[in-house]
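Protein modeling request. Please complete all fields; requests missing the sequence field cannot be processed.
Requester role: graduate student
Desired output: 3D structure, token encoding
Chains: 1
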Amino acid sequence: AGYTAAGAIPQTLGNRHPSISPYELYETADRPLVIAVGTDRQFASLCTGLGLPDLADDGRFRTNTDRVSHAGELRSLLGQQLRERTASHWFETLTALGVPCGPVNDLAAAFALADDLELDPTITVGRAGSSVDLVANPIGLSRTPVQYRTSPPTLGEHTDTINEWLDGPAGEDI
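Delivered output (174 residues):
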């Protein structure tokens, strides 16, 4: 929309938002944390939660426009503070204050979170003695729930069937 409405050609910004600040990825003591502050009220809460309440009254950061203009300075100040504690600490502290944020999860943490939220992220399929856990379909349909009718084949299980299919009927080129 910035291009079609104003002819502005977007530049590479990584995870940063071009017109909202702070709205990006920050390093903490243990793993990255995404902060997505979209209002001045949220920014004041962020500053309070980080133990930097004076930052909300700093003329460079008072409004979103000010923060975008001084995004590099703001990123540096916030980053210093955020590296002092873990992503989980900041998530709990800032979420309680209404600041949109979240830790970046690796796959193990993502599956653990899905389990905590009772989303049933995995399904066990297979034959007796050779079952395997797979990623469950994330879509839940009330009238036509996902069915898992077959398990992954064992090595070579369908080789003959596939070879017959590839060979085609006798005398016919595929």
